[in-house]
Design goal:
CATH class: Alpha Beta
Number of domains: 1
Shape: globular
Structural class: alpha/beta
CATH superfamily: HAD superfamily/HAD-like
CATH topology: Rossmann fold
Largest sheet: 8 strands, mixed
């Protein structure tokens, strides 16, 4: 039987959320004048809180404001690599590193499954020696440039589980032939945790902590 260890990234592996910090890092590196647009990003965030826009729209608007409409793959790879280097050095939780190493040593195939954009999540995953990444993907234009639009769906909530199942199908992994561990900090990943053979509520916020106690999921604190 194969073994998978599926990890959320933000606030599970990393100490804090990465998306806004990535955008600020990228804007500072490429076009510092765009940081003056941060109040508009805040307005978009308020629109999300008021349920006027969804997470996908918020993500697209924020990227459009701070990174522009499109970046070449080389430019995106460069800024993502610099951000990943900094995150690997100071943003990854020590206990998360230890658990990742322990799962690898136990023969688990390591999968990062995150709502963060794949262009920088994959860079972080490579530094942590993950085998695979399931993440939100950016649309490309005819020249292959990375757009501020999402290709398909935001890898969040029930969609994340569907994307993991699609990845498994593409990789030729049958659910009945694999033992799955899943780690997450947020109740939005309840479908994934329910589906896993072993579920770990890591650094859990209140709603997930309450649900974990009802479902009998193991609680871990890596903070």
């Amino acid at each position: 039987m194969q073994h998978l260890a599926i990890y959320d990234m933000d606030k599970t592996i990393t100490a804090t959320p990465t998306w806004t910090r990535f955008l600020v890092h990228a804007a500072r590196a490429r076009a510092p004048w765009r940081l003056a647009l941060m109040p508009l990003v805040g307005v978009a965030g308020l629109g999300y809180l008021l349920k006027l826009i969804d997470r996908s729209r918020l993500k697209q608007l924020s990227q459009r404001l701070l990174l522009g409409r499109a970046l070449t793959v080389a430019d995106m790879d460069a800024v993502a690599a610099r951000f990943a280097d900094a995150e690997f050095e100071t943003g990854v939780l020590h206990d998360a590193r230890e658990r990742i190493e322990a799962d690898r040593a136990a023969g688990y195939r390591l999968v990062m499954a995150t709502a963060s954009h794949g262009y920088y999540a994959a860079a972080i995953a490579r530094l942590l020696d993950f085998d695979d990444v399931v993440a939100t993907q950016a649309r490309r234009d005819r020249q292959g440039r990375v757009l501020s639009l999402i290709e398909g769906n935001n890898c969040y909530g029930p969609v994340k589980l569907r994307m993991i199942e699609n990845w498994m199908e593409g990789a030729g992994i049958a659910r009945g032939d694999v033992h799955v561990r899943a780690y997450s900090d947020h109740v939005s990943d309840a479908p994934l945790l329910d589906w896993a053979d072993e579920a770990f509520a890591v650094n859990a916020h209140g709603p997930l902590r309450s649900l974990a106690r009802v479902r009998g999921w193991t609680e871990l604190d890596w903070r």
